[in-house]
Amino acid sequence: MAGFRWGMVGSSGWADHTFGPAITHARGNRLVAVLGSKAKGAAAYAERHALEASYIDLKRFLAHPELDAVWVASPPDLHRQQVLAALKAGKHVLCEKPMAVTVADCKAMVRAAAAARRELCIGFNNRAQPTLQKLAKRVASGHFGTALDARVQVYYPYPSAPPAWRQNRTRSGGWAIGDIGTHLLDVLCWMMNSTPKAAYGHLTNECWGFKTDDHAQVGVTFKNGAIGSITACTGAAGGAPRVEFYGTAGYFILRGGLFGAAGDLEIGLKGKEATTEKIIACDTYQNEVELFSAQARGRTRALATGADGATNIGLVAAARGW
């Protein structure tokens, strides 16, 4: 019964092949229960991950003995109901991205977390990448001077069509922008160390032809006077992920590195020769679990908050225009 005890909302996809193992491998953490949409699927998940119980009823799931936290890994249109119920039941919550489809839903979740005095974090796992953590601290300390511009891009051509809910605007809030773009906007805002002021976007579906976007370009202006942009694509090839930051005193370019992948980091300061170092791969999801359990105990403040998630969806909404 020892350790930080988790319940998983979702019994397939990422909840199965990535999130469940991340909890299992995280020090001091244990996955003990799952909530699924169908009894057979939930039971199979429980067997695969050696859990204490499986459920299809949210209330019974949240009443599972000594449950400390819930990882909400369901489609975005279900997040508000499930997160509010978990917080009301006294559980800490790690809510997958995108936080919700609308800003109003996000704000309701933030208010509920404050009222319940429980931790609400959003699953932007790049916040648990050590290299990005160090770069964010360097930016905040003024190492690269005053921020001027930043860019983040990921081209990931899906090998097959996504689940039906990702093709539905009402359920997903957008495909490329909600699946990948929301991550990139979080990295952009984190690296910029400033509050976004406005966003504009151009979303298309030329690659797959679904009603949801498969290519999203978003521009963001910040209150510190800097500008930034992200490109997220789920249908075309574009090489390794890339994060660029340019300040008045220096720059960095991270090729690869996002989502725990290996890569290389180039850093240049004005008047000095640029340096390059290799970035080793890491499990950002396992790191995220360990950071979350520590954050729930008041030991650190490393992950994206509910407020960060609400700001993120505000940018997504501005970019998509609805």
The run of helices and strands is EHEHEHEHEHEHEHHEEEEEEEHH
DSSP helical segment count: 10
| Structural class label | alpha/beta
- Cα-to-Cα separation, first versus last residue: 46 Å
Uncertain runs are none
What spatial form do the alpha-carbon principal axes imply? globular
Report what the structure shows.
This protein is of the alpha/beta class. It folds into two domains: 4-125, NAD(P)-binding Rossmann-like Domain (Rossmann fold), CATH 3.40.50.720; 126-282 and 306-320, 2-Layer Sandwich (Dihydrodipicolinate Reductase, domain 2), CATH 3.30.360.10. Helices cover 35% and strands 26% of the residues. The protein is built from ten helices and 14 strands. It has helices spanning 14-25, 39-48, 58-62, 79-88, 103-116, 130-141, 169-172, 176-192, 284-296, 306-320; strands spanning 4-9, 29-35, 53-55, 69-72, 92-95, 120-122, 147-155, 196-204, 215-222, 227-233, 242-247, 250-256, 263-269, 275-279. An eight-stranded mixed β-sheet has the order 8-9-10-7-11-12-13-14, with helices on one face. Helix 5 (103-116) links the parallel strand 5 and strand 6. Helix 5 (103-116) runs antiparallel to helix 10 (306-320) and helix 8 (176-192) crosses helix 10 (306-320). The termini are far apart.
Helix and strand arrangement:
Blueprint: E1 4-9, H1 14-25, E2 29-35, H2 39-48, E3 53-55, H3 58-62, E4 69-72, H4 79-88, E5 92-95, H5 103-116, E6 120-122, H6 130-141, E7 147-155, H7 169-172, H8 176-192, E8 196-204, E9 215-222, E10 227-233, E11 242-247, E12 250-256, E13 263-269, E14 275-279, H9 284-296, H10 306-320
Parallel strand pairs: 1-2, 1-4, 2-3, 4-5, 5-6, 7-10
Antiparallel strand pairs: 7-11, 8-9, 9-10, 11-12, 12-13, 13-14
Helix pairs in contact: 1-9, 4-5, 5-10, 8-10
